[in-house]
């Protein structure tokens, strides 16, 4: 028997007993939750098979619907058609009255359009705080969720499932590219961070950009109270480049929401760029000018 190579024991011990590697090993063994999509967690339908929540999957394109039943291998979904735009801040869906996607006859007695999909490809949409309201006429609104975002999640997860070696962790890319800007340094891994990075890359191609910002408080005085803020980006010809919306739930105020919208507009600006920012908040304007040591 050949002797173990030098340092082999140390390497083996590190892999076997290291707390960090133990954590990684647990994550790899956990099949109900996918954590490779920029810090966003996709919960499989098998984590709560009796739930009737809204689910999403891919079959040629994005499918949304309600769970009818989860069987041993397949999930049967009541199909809901998407009637909102992919960039709208909310998703609006309506029960499908029948289309070419229908794949079932047994459940069709009560549900006009039923889609069958493998359990491991069906995920809940509401894996974070999400307000869902019935609009009547079998229509539902999913508030503060953009269709384009969940499309990126599902397609990204689909690609990663087939080509896991093509995925490069965020920290590796940041180190290789030596990216040390505010977004990468101070914002946690999330869809919001990725959207801001994409917006910043787009703005690098534009010398002058124009931004409209706004922020407000919704559901004030209720336990669902939260602040929403956002910005819409245009080029100098007022052609829309991108838009960004987000929410927060702590220390809520309209002034803070307006200020966060301003900060978002500023942190995505490229070096040596010129920008015009429009706001309807005099407080945000005055505070910004004070920071520049200009007396109004």
UniProtKB/TrEMBL annotation:
<protein>
    <submittedName>
        <fullName>Uncharacterized protein</fullName>
    </submittedName>
</protein>
<dbReference type="InterPro" id="IPR012337">
    <property type="entry name" value="RNaseH-like_sf"/>
</dbReference>
<dbReference type="InterPro" id="IPR036397">
    <property type="entry name" value="RNaseH_sf"/>
</dbReference>
<dbReference type="GO" id="GO:0003676">
    <property type="term" value="F:nucleic acid binding"/>
</dbReference>
């Amino acid at each position: 028997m050949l002797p173990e190579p030098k340092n082999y024991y140390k390497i083996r011990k590190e892999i076997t007993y290291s707390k960090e590697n133990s954590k990684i090993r647990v994550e790899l063994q956990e099949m109900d939750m996918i954590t490779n999509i920029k810090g966003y967690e996709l919960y499989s339908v098998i984590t709560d098979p009796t739930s009737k929540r809204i689910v999403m999957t891919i079959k040629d394109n994005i499918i949304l619907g309600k769970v009818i039943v989860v069987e041993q291998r397949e999930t049967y979904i009541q199909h809901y058609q998407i009637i909102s735009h992919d960039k709208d801040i909310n998703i609006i869906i309506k029960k499908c009255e029948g289309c070419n996607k229908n794949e079932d006859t047994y459940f069709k007695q009560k549900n006009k359009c039923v889609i069958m999909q493998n359990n491991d490809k069906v995920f809940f949409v509401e894996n974070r705080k999400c307000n869902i309201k019935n609009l009547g006429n079998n229509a539902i609104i999913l508030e503060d969720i953009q269709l384009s975002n969940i499309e990126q999640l599902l397609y990204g997860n689909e690609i990663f499932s087939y080509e896991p070696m093509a995925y490069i962790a965020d920290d590796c890319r940041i180190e290789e590219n030596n990216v040390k800007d505010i977004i990468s340094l101070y914002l946690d891994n999330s869809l919001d961070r990725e959207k801001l990075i994409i917006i910043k890359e787009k703005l690098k191609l534009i010398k002058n950009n124009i931004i409209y910002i706004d922020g407000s408080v919704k559901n004030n005085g209720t336990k669902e109270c939260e602040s929403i803020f956002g910005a819409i980006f245009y080029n100098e010809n007022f052609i829309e480049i991108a838009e960004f919306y987000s929410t927060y739930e702590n220390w809520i105020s309209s002034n803070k929401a307006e200020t966060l919208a301003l900060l978002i507009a500023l942190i995505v600006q490229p070096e040596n760029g010129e920008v015009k920012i429009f706001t309807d908040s005099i407080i945000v304007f005055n505070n910004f000018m004070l920071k520049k040591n200009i007396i109004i």
